[in-house]
Amino acid sequence: MPTSNVASPNVSFHHLNLGTLSKSIAISGLVLFVFYTVWSNHVNGYVFLDKEPTPEFLPWPLTSPPYRVSSKFTNLRVYPKLVSPPQVRMFRAILDMYRQGDQANKGLRWFMVCDDDTLVFVDNLVEVLNKFDHTKYHYIGGNSECVKSNADFSFDMAFGGAGYALSWPLVEALSSKLEGCIERYPHLFVSDHMVQSCLADLGVAVAHQKGIHQIDLHGDISGFLSTHPQAPLVTLHHFDTIDPIFPSMDRPEAIQHLMKAAEVDESRLAQQTICYHRESNWSVSVSWGYSAYIYENIIPRSTLIKPLETFQPWIINTSYPAFMFNTRRPNDDACESPHVFFFQSFDEDWKKNNASAVVVGDQQVVTTYTRKWPANLRPCELAGNHSASLVDEIRVVSRMRARKMAGVMECCDVDHKIGTSSVGVTIRSCLKDEVIA
């Protein structure tokens, strides 16, 4: 069946079947919290376990998706040759999902597969899926952030931790050919690679999406999240291994805090907007709902869209460049190092209480970002010694719309009185041919 990118109208979360892959011994408080966060959207689907949950997790929480034990496959002729039976179980979850979905809901259009430590932003996922015709073959996902991970498996593969989506007709076709595919690839030891190989044999290539994140990173990923492109944030993986994404919070608290912003405007979440305060020679970068940076120098957008390398690669290997994207190395240069602020709160009623509101025509929301630690930076002499050390709060005004249009660039204006502790930023539509530099 040929593929097409003609959008299917009126796709909603009711048309989605979400399958989460887990193991009985992997269930933890964090995993259950991720389940609760994602599945509170009332999507269809199941968590697939290798065996029944341990007694401590029974009765199964009502705030988690219903679980199913993966179907047995030890009777397969190729079973003795399988390099990794647990990964084959995960690969076969597609078949298990198809069987469950076929019985439960004839109106399903999409299947989404992800890991148990993956945060899924369902509204943004639906927006991405709306770009594709669900009646055709589609395989949608993201690759790894690290060159080595992609080189070890395939640059044309959707990583399952990040999550991948399959259209119903493709799952239907694959379900009838899945056992034969396992026969061809018993030597593969990762389920994602099995999926990619089998779909390649069907003539289907992955459609990479920028907002689907494997997060093959270690440590502090704030530099990565603070430069998210103008694309919907769809998934974040590896919450059990990275540092909490907000300082002074544990992982569940950090997830809950991010979701507060997502509840206000998921379509804009984490997307980077850049503008300047010329009087102070400052550059301001806002990752909406996550962080805000002030640089004491005018730095062009072409530089600021490169993530600050606050993180480490999943596996350090000098045979390859570390990352699939360019980065900036953190340093102590006052003209290059940012003052860092993190999302603190939002105020939807700010417009009603502030006569000087500058955004008109739509309801607006104000998000506030606060400094979590002293900058300890000398003023940037090159740019005129306009220190930002006094600033302890950045207030960002944005329009509340039904949805921010995916891929549409936004600009902003900075309002600041030199010597005061607060900075105002107003996000707006860019002017025609506006240069951000």
Question: In CATH's first tier, which class of the largest domain applies?
Answer: Alpha Beta
User: How many H/I helices?
Assistant: 11
Q: What is the CA-CA span between the terminal residues? A: 46 Å
Largest sheet: 8 strands, mixed
Q: Which CATH architecture of the largest domain would you pick? A: Alpha-Beta Complex
Radius of gyration in whole Å, from Cα? 23 Å
**Biggest sheet: strand arrangement:** 12-13-14-16-17-18-20-19
Q: Tell me the CATH topology of the largest domain.
A: Spore Coat Polysaccharide Biosynthesis Protein SpsA, Chain A
Average pLDDT level: 89
What structural category arises from helix and sheet content?
alpha/beta
Low-pLDDT residue intervals, each spanning 5 or more residues? 354-360
Shape: elongated
Number of strands: 20
- The helix content is 10-25%
Which structural traits does this protein have?
437 residues; Spore Coat Polysaccharide Biosynthesis Protein SpsA, Chain A; seven-stranded mixed β-sheet; eight-stranded mixed β-sheet; elongated; DUF604
Describe the structure in your own words:
It is a single chain. With 437 residues, the chain is an alpha/beta fold. It folds into two domains: 13-214, Spore Coat Polysaccharide Biosynthesis Protein SpsA, Chain A; 266-316 and 323-429, no CATH class. It has eleven helices and 20 strands. The strands form four sheets. The protein has an eight-stranded mixed beta sheet with strand order 12-13-14-16-17-18-20-19, covered by helices on one side. A hairpin with a 3-residue loop joins strand 13 and strand 14 (291-295). Residues 354-360 have low confidence and may be disordered. InterPro entries: DUF604 (IPR006740).
